[in-house]
Task: structure prediction
Amino acid sequence: MAKLAATTYGNALFELAVEESKVDQLNEEAEAVLQVLKSETELSKLMDHPKIVKEEKNKILESIFKGRVSDDMVGFLLLLLKKDHYGEAIPTMEYFLAQVKEYKKIGIAYVTTAVELSQAQKKAVEAKLLATTGYLTFEMHFSVDAALIGGMIIRVGDRVVDSSVRSKLMDLSRDLMKLQLA
Result:
């Protein structure tokens, strides 16, 4: 249910941003709000406290965000609070930011390799992704996992390309197990 709320409210905020041509503005504000929500754990505790009435929580949110972000964003946070979905503010903002990236055709790629790639190799991977996807740019996240033995794993959204040696060895092992059972 929680994921549904984040998706529903995130879509609503995204639709508002597109309709009012405020995609860039609300994207910046959502990033700022998300940073505050993640860094200020006391705020979450305060907003979740059952003995603090909603009117007081409204005043707290307004005192923190009013004048720093647009009235649209403040109103959105107050709406989440009013509808008892303030606990979903972080996933909602994350979902909204992901929607904006899709809208702007910015892909997010997670590349895991067995050894550190050179800058030239990183650029080559990014160029190949740009050539084979519909994205205009990529946010590239590179990591190293020696357990892969060789090759790489690339994840873009819900798509995964696993060309690691570890994966190929596991597949081969499974195939050999099937042969022994037959």
Summary: The beta strands are 106-113, 137-144, 152-156, 159-162. The radius of gyration is 22 Å.
